[in-house]
Write a structure and sequence with these properties.
Blueprint: E1 16-20, H1 24-30, H2 35-56, E2 60-67, H3 75-98, E3 101-106, H4 114-126, E4 133-141, H5 143-159, H6 170-176, E5 187-190, E6 209-212, H7 222-233, H8 243-250
Parallel strand pairs: 1-2, 1-5, 2-4, 3-4, 5-6
Helix pairs in contact: 1-2, 2-3, 3-4
The structure holds 3-methylbut-3-enyl trihydrogen diphosphate (IPE) (2 copies) and magnesium ion.
One 3-methylbut-3-enyl trihydrogen diphosphate is lined by residues 21-26, 66, 70, 81, 192, 217.
């Protein structure tokens, strides 16, 4: 593995990286193994990505671990994913503490197995004062579900006269999303060659840079992550302005 650290500009790191961790099933299939074998081997790539972000100084990492649509998968696969979540949380608490990482979640946790809810609450509590990296796991997360939830909550507030319709703006919507405590995504990565968003952070990626790689998730490592950051740093983020305006700001 190449060490790409010296090619990264520490002053222009993406503040928030989000990853759609895809390709576990295909990775397993390539080795004539059942899909769950891919999920088990995906855990190592999760650890490597977290450690790489902590090492380079990224502040926010958000990982898509289970979508609202993933409940439609075979029962055994869903069960394995949930038990992997519980065992990894137990095992990785030490890594989180050692690297000063704070755990956070987005998504509707109420439908997760009780065991997973308890384990998550425990790790969140134990890491709540950590300050280096905020690691957010998207669990039973779907962007459309999130937006429906926001609309319901805002409507309730309007009905209860806590809010007027005129008060509703982008900031209020932001504050009611699961991601209320997170900054906008700067860089979104998807592995496995698929070029779609699959209901992940639709509002939050409005101005994110998108990076797609053919690497299957269990093979993803520090080098792949740093490659994505290097690619990101070569781009000009214009936010609707002209290139000339951006150059002036950077002068
Ligand atoms: C990503 O890998 C893991 C989850 C969605 C939980 P997949 O399981 O989607 O792998 P492929 O896309 O079938 O290869
Ligand atoms: C997206 O991957 C969800 C996660 C990575 C958790 P999927 O594999 O479920 O996405 P689609 O179905 O191929 O779009
Ligand atoms: Mg997939």
């Amino acid at each position: 593995m190449k060490d790409l650290t010296n090619q990264i500009n520490k002053n222009t790191l993406p503040n928030h990286i989000a990853i759609i961790m895809d390709g576990n099933g295909r990775w397993a299939k390539q080795q004539n193994q059942p899909r769950v074998f891919g999920h088990k081997n995906g855990v190592g790539a999760v650890r490597k990505s977290i450690e790489a972000c902590a090492k380079i100084g990224v502040n926010y990492l958000t990982l898509y671990a289970f979508s609202t649509e993933n409940w439609n998968r075979p029962k055994l696969e869903v069960k394995t994913l949930m038990s992997l979540l519980v065992s990894s949380l137990k095992k990785e608490l030490k890594t989180l503490q050692k690297n000063n990482i704070k755990l956070n979640t987005i998504g509707n946790l109420e439908n997760l197995p009780k065991k997973a809810q308890i384990e998550l609450a425990d790790v969140i509590e134990k890491t709540k004062n950590n300050t280096a990296l905020t690691l957010t796991l998207a669990l039973n997360y779907g962007s459309r579900e999130e937006i429906v939830n926001v609309i319901k909550n805002l409507s309730k507030k309007v009905v209860n006269k806590e809010l007027t319709i005129e008060d509703i703006d982008e900031k209020i919507i932001n504050n009611h999303l699961y991601t209320f405590s997170l900054p906008d995504v700067d860089l979104m990565i998807r592995t496995s060659g698929e070029k779609r968003i699959s209901n992940f952070l639709l509002w939050q990626i409005a101005y994110a840079e998108l990076y797609f790689t053919d690497t299957l998730w269990p093979d993803f490592n520090e080098e792949n992550l740093f490659q994505a950051i290097i690619d990101y740093q070569k781009r000009e983020r214009r936010f609707g302005k002209t290139s000339e305006q951006i150059e002036k700001i950077n002068d």
